[in-house]
Specification:
Layout lengths: L1 E3 L4 H27 L3 H29 L2 E5 L2 E6 L2 E6 L3 E6 L18 E7 L3 E7 L6 E5 L3 E4 L4 H14 L8 E3 L1 H10 L1 H27 L2 E3 L11 E3 L5 H21 L5 H26 L3
Parallel strand pairs: 7-9
Antiparallel strand pairs: 1-2, 2-3, 3-4, 4-10, 5-8, 6-7, 8-9, 11-12
Helix pairs in contact: 1-2, 2-6, 5-6, 5-7, 6-7
């Protein structure tokens, strides 16, 4: 077996810069919201913070997928790995392999792609739909099978094509079974798990209930105390919009617990960790909801 890695350096640098920038912007938005913003500005900053929390795991997953990507070539086929995306291609289904810049086809990259994450599908004239599992647009290799066309980007694309051509000439003795696993299939597997199916909806439901109840309190109260002193007395009431920080915290906890739980769920022996994280995702919004109820009761 020969394993070819995708070009990672530029993609890792790009993802690192983006992740640091997202965290820095999120921290700045939170600081401004807590120290300087009131009224409509505070609400707008909380919405922006929620958007940042949603974008962060998306970018983080693409960085994780790039670091764990590989193209493994063996006598009986090709195995592609990119995060949760797995593709096993039997050698006898491969029709041709070519460098993209020598193929004569004009490739259009999929939407929402950037350095280190060229992923998705694109329609190419005279070739049809192409699935990209690549990191570098300058090193693309096209692999045409009897059912699909894939575009990958080994770091040494010419060496990959030469190695593949040699294996095609040798022929396959026992082709590997065809397999195509996508993140959506993994999520279906999670949903079929009895414990996950019980805990995950409660995670989302309690977080949604926290957001709805907090919004109702903000709409019906002008001022709400933002905590309690050590002797149990409520602090002086402040602008009610500031308790919107609690559902934002709830969303952050939800995203963190769900994503980390999915990471550990991949391995059978680590699934107890997933269950504990998702159980924590039930406790956290319940406690935050209780906090909102106690604070609003002091008005």
């Amino acid at each position: 077996m020969q394993t070819f890695e995708p070009e990672r350096k530029k993609g890792v640098i790009f993802h690192t810069i983006v992740l640091i920038a997202i965290l820095a912007i999120g921290s700045f938005v939170l600081w401004v919201a807590m120290t300087r913003a009131q009224g409509g500005l505070f609400v707008s900053l909380m919405i922006l913070l929620l958007f940042i929390f949603i974008v962060l795991p998306f970018v983080g997953y693409r960085a994780f997928a790039l670091l764990n990507a590989s193209y493994s070539l063996e006598r009986d086929g090709l195995r592609l790995k990119w995060g949760l995306r797995l593709e096993d291609i039997p050698l006898n289904t491969v029709e041709w392999v070519r460098l993209a810049n020598e193929s004569g086809f004009h490739l259009l990259l999929p939407p929402l792609t950037w350095e280190g994450a060229i992923l998705g599908h694109s329609n190419v004239k005279d070739l049809g739909e192409v699935e990209f599992i690549a990191s570098d647009a300058k090193k693309l290799v096209l692999i045409a099978t009897s059912s699909k066309v894939l575009a990958i980007s080994p770091k040494d694309s010419k060496a990959f094509v030469s190695a593949f051509q040699r294996i095609l000439e040798l022929g396959s003795l026992s082709p590997i079974p065809s397999r195509s696993a996508r993140p959506a299939a993994f999520l279906r597997q999670v949903w079929q798990d009895r414990i996950a199916k019980a805990l995950l909806p409660v995670n989302f439901l309690l977080t949604l209930l926290l957001a709805i109840y907090t919004g109702f309190m903000v709409a019906t109260h002008n001022r709400i105390p933002l905590g309690f002193s050590p002797n149990g007395k409520p602090f002086e009431a402040g602008p009610s919009e500031q308790i919107l920080l609690l559902p934002v915290m709830g969303v952050l906890v939800l995203i963190t617990n769900v994503v980390m739980g999915l990471f550990f769920f991949r391995k059978e022996e680590a699934r107890i960790t997933s269950y504990l994280l998702w159980f924590g995702g039930v406790i956290s919004p319940a406690l935050l909801l209780l906090a909102v109820i106690l604070l609003s009761s002091q008005t």
